[in-house]
Amino acid sequence: MNVRYIVATLGILLSSEVVNAQNYTTINITKADFLQSSGAAEPISPVGAQITFEKNTSTRPSTFSIYALSDIVTHITNRPELSWRLSTRSIKAGLTTSDGAMRHTILASGMGSNLVNESNATFPEGTKFGLWFSIPNFSNYAWYKQRYGMNVFLYDMNSNGGRLVPNRTMPVAIDVPLLSEMTDSDWAPVWDVYVNGSADYLSGLDVKHSEIKTVLHTIDFSTILRATAPVFVAKSLDNMNIEPVPINVATYHMGTGSVILHMDNPTILRTKNISPGNKSLLGQESLAISSARMKQYFRKPGIYTVPIELIFKDSYTGDITKKYSRVLNIHVPNLSSFSVSTTQIDLKLESVNDYQQGVSKEYPDHLVVSQLQPYTISVKANSTHFTSVDSELSIPVSAIQLGPATGQNTAGFNTVNLSTSPQLFITGNDEIAIDKKYGIKYSIPSNEAKNILSTLPIGATVGGVYTGTITYTLTPQ
Questions:
Q1: What is the per-residue pLDDT across 347-375, written as a single tens digit (0 to 9) for each?
Q2: Which class is domain 337-476?
Q3: Can you give the three-state secondary structure of the chain, one letter per residue?
């Protein structure tokens, strides 16, 4: 059971007059009351509220009772959008006595239950009692920020039904504070977002924060997210200034709400109804940047930084109730990947015509490049000749020619013959290349094919598989 215990501060002299009384005996609801998940069945050692019986030998009270004068708790400070009421039957009142016993009654209209009955206990003059209130199942209600009030009637009767002291009506107020804040500390002051590879450029960046935010609130509120600077300030990996990026390239999501990042105050989520327990989920945060914007603005390795604020506003008054600050960092690595789709290249000289005309073979999408800055690709052979275990013949690597395949854009290409020295093969002038593919044509031109036969020693064996290794190297510029 979730029980909220409140100790009211009140001084009552039952044998004469109410003393030290205020306009209202106030029950103050606190943040901790909303966060607790359970409570004891009865209050433990309540303090603060003291009721003093001035007893003598001729007259003493036998019963002390309390009840509410109405069935509902009414609003004292009323807002037009609020209509919630709490039945007084949901509130308990009671006394603690000097013998440590605790007695309580539900506040129902009409005659209340007895709180103290001296047929079971005797109290000397000057005995002090602690007056307390509790709201069982506190989290079952939706509490709005305001003051709720009720009138509680106190009376004291002897065993013959006669009143021993004047009856007293006690106004009681329940004060609910303004709350509009996250219930945990997971709004980290820094959020580091990492670009992990070419997929973030091909499909766009979409990164989710690990935590789902929960807000404790006693008002209807608007959630505002804005940047506090007009651009992402950018630093290269060696801490040099690079071109800043406008903040409106990024879209910020929270739950079902989203906003393009800027310095104004867009509303990205509005909670209109306070639910029982006074907690609402904001949902998961995420940051998204489209493929086109990633390629246009985040092409240089470095860290892109902007400060942001999450703001809660009272939907009724427009007042800011809470601010959370954060630094958003987007980390762009020196993204560089280079691969060869086929690692075995086959050129076959199988007929007289092959030696006369030469042979070639094309490999579409043979080289695949991802690079955030211009680059070059060079090629070399690892030895001077291709050799075979089946033949005395060796073929010079210069007999092999490399160039663009059919249909390949030839811009930036050089047609080269292999050498043991690196030769510039491709120049990539793109400011950003993501999974860019190059089709390559391998060939033995006719003149080189004829030279192979012309250098063959008399009686030498020709047939066989001649192998060698070539190496491609990508170099950022």
A1: 998 888 998 899 999 999 999 998 887 89
A2: mainly beta
A3: CCEEEEECCCEEECCCCECCCCCCEEEECCHHHHHCCCCCCCCCCCCCCEEECCCCCCCCCCEEEEEECCCEEEECCCCCCCCCCEEHHHCEEEEECCCCCEEEEECCECCCCEEEECCCCCCCCCCEEEEEEEEECHHHCCCCCEEEEEEEEEEEECCCCCECCCCEEEEEEEEECCCEEECCCCCCCEEEEECCCCHHHHCCEEEEEEEEEEEEECCCEEEEEEECCCEEEEEECCCCEEEEEEHHHCEEEECCEEEECCCCCCEEEEECCCCCCCEEEEEEEEEEECHHHHHHHCCCCEEEEEEEEEEEEECCCCCEEEEEEEEEEEEECCCEEEEECCCCCCCCCCCHHHHHHEEEEEEEEEEEEEECCCEEEEEEECCCEEECCCCCCCEEHHHCEEEECCCCCCCCECCEECCCCCEEEEEECCCCEEEEEEEEEEEEEHHHHHHHHHCCCCCCCCCCCCECCEEEEEEEC
